[in-house]
Fold:
Amino acid sequence: PGWVAQQGSNAPPEWVAHQGSNAPPEWVAHQGSNPPPEWVAHQGTCLSPPAYRTDEGQPWVLPVVKKVEKLIVADNRLNHEYLPILGLPEFRSSASKIALGEDSPAIQENRVGAVQCLGGTGALKMGAEFLRRWYNGNDNMKTPVYVSAPTWENHNSVFANAGFEDVRPYKYWDAEKRGLDLAGFLGDLETAPKHSIFVLHACAHNPTGTDPTHMEWTQVAEVMKRRKLFVFFDSAYQGFASGCLDKDAWAVRYFVTQGFEMFCAQSFSKNFGLYNERVGNLTIVARDADNVRRVLSQMEKIVRVTWSNPPSQGARLVAITLNTAELFAEWKDNVKTMADRVLLMRASLQAKLQALGTPGTWDHITQQIGMFSFTGLNPKQVEYMIKERSIYLMASGRINMCGLTTKNIDYVAKSIHETVVNVQ
Ligand SMILES: Cc1ncc(COP(=O)(O)O)c(C=O)c1O
Structure:
């Protein structure tokens, strides 16, 4: 014990207290991806579950994942040796392939590389760490990083935490028309300092559920190219928006055809339901093979001091699935099951509100895509929903469509109706 005390394997209690090893509870409640515990305790209707839920309100282990898990257990060639620093090679290449497309010119020209990361968050983190060190000069913390207004809250923190001092919002959401503020978005691209970094949601924008159309993406790409802005895609929901992997990768692939060098952070948390396995990939599209090699050599150094080397289970599950034709087909089917359930809930909610004659227009419910929807309910209305109807949603009015089921949707629709009529 004397030795332990002297070597300080445990920090003295005062130190823990002073350094704040626990974040204040309000912070956790607001920033956390889980709904606050008070909500859960109430047993009401939670329209903000942190992940996909079935029509029974339960988490879903994808059948294809169960199948591949059994294959892994039965495969005596596999062991628990360390993976290479950059991750499982067959995972990295197959993950990049689903983002960029089988026949991607960039892959054929050997100018694509990848880093296996701890979830989409890890991929954003590795990309941010690299850019701070090596982009737009060395260790240039002044390069502006633009994130959409609003965005997934962690974007701000990940880039700030990597050392970027100037993380700014770009215009994205037009609250009045409940859709994309294209003019504002393009305006911010035009006035951003050259070489600024723009984080773009590849599809199923979180939290608004509003993506640019193909035509709008081409306008965004035109300005970004002309103004030499860096494209950092965040692809956390591929397959979830439309049910089709290729459709959901349209923007990423279009930017590649326009000759951009870029990063694309991919998460397999949602589309494989592998939330706690931390499976992500950072796809790097560079000018040429030599640049990829140089970027990866620096990435190795960054990974080494961050997590040293990544975990294998999730990466194996994904790699085996993507590289086996029948399993790949089955996975696409599983993804479609999830996307279709969300689309069905959107259509039903809109139809029910229209049938009730709820004041306002509700077309945005079906125009928005992916898991999330900005209902347009204001903070007072949200408060009413929580207090009077025990329906729990974010103060911003955002709901996760997976919180809706065939059993609770009538109650939710009637409650929204009552709220909109009674509270302005
Ligand atoms: C837009 C966006 N990016 C990244 C992530 C992170 O995903 P992961 O859990 O794989 O780190 C999320 C998760 O909610 C997200 O919504």
Observations:
- The longest helix spans residues 325-356.
- Confidence is low (pLDDT under 50) at residues 1-9, 16-33.
- The CA atoms of residues 217 and 408 lie 37 Å apart.
- The two ends are 64 Å apart (CA to CA).
